[in-house]
Design brief:
Blueprint: H1 13-25, E1 31-33, E2 48-52, E3 57-61, H2 87-95
Parallel strand pairs: 1-2
Antiparallel strand pairs: 2-3
């Protein structure tokens, strides 16, 4: 179920404060965050946020197309290592 429009976007309060402080000072540095559930707002555009994926921080450069999406969408938590493909045939050839 989607969040009510009356409530607005959810952004972690501490993250919002850090982004606002960087906008006022004009600095560009990486902000570390564990808040994968925070929504990307227009204030965050052109900043780099390091989003935690459970093991490490993934740097995510925020562009205009990302506004309205969640931070967690851009820091994948699982590593895809490929399908089985021809592993069965290779394993059978080794056993002979």
């Amino acid at each position: 179920m989607a969040r009510s429009l009356k409530k607005g976007f959810f952004v972690e309060e501490s993250l919002e404060k850090k982004v606002d402080a960087m906008n006022e000072s004009g600095q560009k540095r990486v902000i570390k965050t564990w808040s994968r559930r925070s929504t990307i707002t227009p204030d965050m555009v052109s900043h780099t946020l390091a989003v935690h994926n459970g093991t490490k921080f993934i740097p995510v450069f925020i562009s205009e197309n990302m506004v309205g999406h969640k931070l967690g969408e851009f820091a994948m938590t699982r590593t895809f290592r490929g399908h089985a493909g021809g592993k069965k045939e290779r394993f059978a050839a080794r056993r002979k």
